[in-house]
Every structure is written in structure tokens, then in C-alpha cells.
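Here we describe the complex-level prediction in full. Unlike the single-chain runs in Section 2.1, the two entities below were treated as one system.
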Amino acid sequence: DQQVKQNSPSLSVQEGRISILNCDYTNSMFDYFLWYKKYPAEGPTFLISISSIKDKNEDGRFTVFLNKSAKHLSLHIVPSQPGDSAVYFCAATYHGSSNTGKLIFGQGTTLQVKP
Amino acid sequence: ETGVTQSPTHLIKTRGQQVTLRCSSQSGHNTVSWYQQALGQGPQFIFQYYREEENGRGNFPPRFSGLQFPNYSSELNVNALELDDSALYLCASSLDDRGNTIYFGEGSWLTVV
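The structure predicted for the assembly as a whole is:
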């Protein structure tokens, strides 16, 4: 049962344009969502997160939007740069007594930003 | 630089053997989690340790076990290796067990032949 899904395995955008990466989830208990970026031969690097009490969080060129009714979140990168080319993982967690804050990851989306 | 270091970076084992992977976390990070990432997949939670006690486990068999030490280092042990255990194993540490800020190491690539 894939509780977090990233349905687009890859995305290609032109430098300077917007990149939109999407993520869907099924577990309504999730209350915290994170995006990680991963380069080859490196571990995932934290990018940005959002709590379920918000619908938007912004950090520089990165903005995450959360639509709880649709169980959907998206990461916007504006403007996209060639150095943003990496695999992006969406992750979710919830803070209940039966959970320990473990992260449930999507399958990842490979972003390629062309110069 | 996340302050989380893992060793070894790459290793090859034979089916049936045992392996120990090591992780050194940032000072003060009393929560460590281990994840398995197969090719083309997202990381999957194996288990978490908080203050040297197991604090949650994913859908992995008992032959996956771990330890956390007072000096913020930890180990992942896998017994009776199977071919499907071939993956990238990631260690992640955080200040608490709420998953709010988690730092990953670069991982240990395990190949089982």
C-alpha cells in the first residue's frame, strides 16, 4: 500500500521557468510533509516542509502548497536552475502515539533543468 | 554537510552472510532512523532508535536489527542476507522523534551476490 505517491517519474523544464512537482497521499492522519532533494551518491537533503495547519510555506525559490481536502501537495521551484537537477522525494509523517515520526516517502521525481 | 557519516560507503556480500553498517550522528541528536532505498524507489523506514531504545519499526523481518550507543553512533545489522537486501541503506538523525528536521547520511551501498 503506497501511502505517498509521486506519479511523475521525471520532469524536464527550461532554466528560468517554473518547476512543479506533485505528490499525493492517502493517509488522512499525516500532519507533516517534507520535500527532500537527492543527488547521485549523496543522501537526501532536506528542502522544505509544511505542517497540516498551513496551506503554503515559502523559502526562497521553493514553495510548498498543501491541499488537505485533495490529499495533495506540490513543490514549486521558481526560477528553476540547472543545479536543481536532482531526484525530489516527497515524505509524510504523523505524530500519534502509535507513530514515532517515521517518514513515509514517495518514489521520487527526477527533475532535469535544461540550460 | 549534514553531520551524519556512514561506513562503509560500498560493500559486497554473499547471500547468507551477515553485515553491519555504521552511522555517526551529530552530537545531541538522540534519535536515529535507518532506511532502505532500493533502486528506483523511495527510502523505506526500517526502524528508529530514541535514547538507545528501539522506538518504532517498519515492515522488515527480525533479521534486521540495530543498536544505538551513548556517543550518538549506531549500527544496522542484517543477518542471513538475501539478494533482495541489495540497496542503499540510509541513516538519519534528528534532535527528537517528531521527524521535523531529519538529516541523512550519504548511505551505504550494499550488494548481495
